């Protein structure tokens, strides 16, 4: 949907611990990048074994905060460490694509 929208320049993906959808997206993006993407994953301070809000499990080495951030970084997607950084990431990406803001 966003790939076809000419007005969308940057997509901000907000995820959380548990499940593996974010890691799947990162793998797909790494082989077929499109729009600029920035990400933020909630749950950095969650105790080990904690589930996401819908009881989505972390599966061994996947679904954790560390594995999701690692997948995004491997795909070249910048990740905000805290929510307050989220607005900075799209601005940085737009600036680099446009030669500075």
How would you sum up this structure in a few lines?
It is built from three helices and three strands, in the order E-H-E-H-E-H.
Q: Can you tell me about this structure?
A:
The chain has helices at residues 21-31, 65-74, 88-98; strands at 10-16, 36-42, 79-80. With 101 residues, it is an alpha/beta fold. The chain has a single domain (10-44, 55-98), classed as Rossmann fold. The protein has a 3-stranded parallel sheet. It is globular, with a radius of gyration of 14 Å. The protein starts with 9 loop residues before the first strand and ends with a helix. The mean pLDDT is 82.
Main-sheet strand order equals 1-2-3
Termini gap: 26 Å
Total DSSP helices: 3
Task: Give a short account of the largest sheet.
Answer: 3 strands, parallel
CATH topology: Rossmann fold
- Under CATH at level 1, the class stands as Alpha Beta
Along the chain, the helix and strand elements come as EHEHEH
Number of strands: 3
In helices, the fraction of residues equals 25-40%
Features:
single chain, 101 residues, alpha/beta, Rossmann fold, 3-stranded parallel beta sheet, 3 helices, 16% strand, globular
Topology:
Layout: E1 10-16, H1 21-31, E2 36-42, H2 65-74, E3 79-80, H3 88-98
Parallel strand pairs: 1-2, 2-3
């Amino acid at each position: 949907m966003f790939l076809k929208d000419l007005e969308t320049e940057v997509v901000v993906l907000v995820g959380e611990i548990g499940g593996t959808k974010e890691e799947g997206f990162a793998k797909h993006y790494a082989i077929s990048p499109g729009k600029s993407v920035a990400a933020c994953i909630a749950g950095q301070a969650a105790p080990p074994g904690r589930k996401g809000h819908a009881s989505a499990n972390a599966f061994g080495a996947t679904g954790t905060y560390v594995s999701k951030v690692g997948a995004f970084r491997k795909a070249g997607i910048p990740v905000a460490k805290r929510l307050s950084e989220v607005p900075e990431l799209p601005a940085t990406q737009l600036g680099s694509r446009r030669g500075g803001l």
